[in-house]
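ok trying again, last paste got cut off:
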Amino acid sequence: MRTLLILTKQPPLAAAIQAVLDQTKYQIVAKENIWEAESLLSRGAIDASLIDVDLTDVRAVRLIEEMKNCAPNCPILIFTGAKNSEWEEDAYLLGVAHILTKPVRSKLLNTLLDRCFRDIEQKTPIAEPPSLPAPMQKKHEPDQVRGLEALRDFSGILAHSLDSDALLKEFLLLLREILGVNRAVIFLRKPGELMGGQDDRWLRSSCAIGLEQTFLEHFALSLTTGIGNHLRRSGRILKVDSPETLASREILKEFQLLGAQVAIPILDRESLIGIAVFDERLTGDPYANEELALIFHMLEEVGLAIRNSWLHDELSSNHAMVADILSHLGSGCVVVAASLEILHVNNSAKKFFLSQKAGKNEIEFSDLPQDLGSKVFAVMKTGLPIPSFKYQFSDLPDLFYQVTILPFRTQSTGSAQAALLLIEDVTEMEKNQRLEVEASNLRLVKSMAEHLAHEIGNSLVPVSTHQQLLAEKYDDPEFRASFSDALASGVKRISRLANQMIFLARDKSEFVDKIRISELIVEALREAHLYHTGKIVSPNFKTSEEPWTVAGDYKALKHAFSEVMLNALQANPKDPNVSVRITEDTSKGEGFMLLNVEVRDTGTGFSPETAEKAQEPFYSTRNVGLGLGLTVTRKIIENHHGKVEITPTLKGQPGMVRISLPLTN
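nice, full thing came through this time. structure:
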């Protein structure tokens, strides 16, 4: 992993360079001036510098000279928007590797960087690590051993800590006190990487002693190269003089930059969550293998503690987020614990429950109305939610509320650990619904008045015409016969209309008659013929072979079937025919046997639109009539606990209406 320094006062340029470089190969540090990066340059933490400067005056040359003074061996690439040949020549003489003109070109920049680093690797041999004194073979003093054992015992309780920063700081201070650690730094992965979030493959400094914080702010270990990659794959302690270190330029360079001698993985018994890097003791003595093994086990306990603190922080963050969401809701929210303690209440709920309690700011369970409190208690005991319901406070009769009560429970328990009470002011919604119902009723009344006026007017036209000629032609027998027919027709139409209104106004029917269905159908067809001027037909079933009976209002059921029969007769006025099929059906009843009566005609059937709307008030495909026949039929049949079904038919097939009624024993 290479670290690139970008010196620019234009953030878009730094962003453009970062966008075209491979994030797994390069770490970008952007600064506005050289003094902000001085500590990184002096330590050799920068592998190459990219400087944004115009080569038009001496200021550019001075900047290059300052860069060379801080980091003589660091390659420099210049990005310029304007240049002068003389200043360009001076830049190359000062050691600038390449001069590039804006804008940033991806392929060219990556190629030049690869070439720079390849040349450096060929010229620079791998540096030997500083020689370390041989470990002392003498037995450790009893006090030191006891100190390590005490530290190990202490690490066993670290899993209970919820403050990872304080925990790590205390841990490093104890190491310094007991072992005499000179420098130490702990690098951690981001919590989100191990909690299902996006993995950026970096470990950044979380806590350190003996190292400059300004340097650590721009230094990170990578899980893809160097120390981080090695410890992620091996999970073992890595020393500066180990064969693995000597074979890797990246690992050796990171040890040198940190001034460290050993790197120890921090595991949580599942994965690598961090790395601890230590220098030698204050006395210059190395660590014995037994000491490093103890530190490894202690860091494992630290890893578990860190993961626990991350989980705690995540839970706290989620809790705060949910509380914030609830506080901004317009609905009142109250969370009640199983002990009936109020865990959370938002401002809206306080307005609902404390509006009549001046001076009180906190809600207690006793502040809930008794009926709501009992429902919350029932939800807590059963673990089952209560469907939303309308509610009115006794002291606020003009206001309407929608209440929902939901349980919070775990899978292992049936009862709830808490309950959520949601209450929403729906007064305006309720008023709007009532206004809409009233408006709908007014529209229905208007439509009914228009249709009634039209139907009654059509019925009275012949009567009115004859009435005007009555004095003049009364002595004419043919006129009197015509007048009688017109009067009878008008009376029949108005009488049928009156019956329809009566049956529509009824909310229930009297079940006083035991009706034989075959006789009812014959009578209904006879009544239908009173309003049909075509030829008279009979139903094509034998009445003597049909024993079924139903209970109900004979007059109402006869009218319901007569409307269906009349509809069948009018479906084909030139050649009307009515076919009736009666069957028993035990599969669709609710504890009783159903009787299905299917009435078929010889017309063109029902289209999907007609089948859907046929039972709606005032719907008709003919120019005469009010369009209430099947609406009245449905109302009567539903009052008898039955139903009417109209299904669409294929083109050319006759229509069919099915009426289902419960049979009597």
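cool. The longest helix spans residues 427-473. The chain is about 45% helix and 20% strand.
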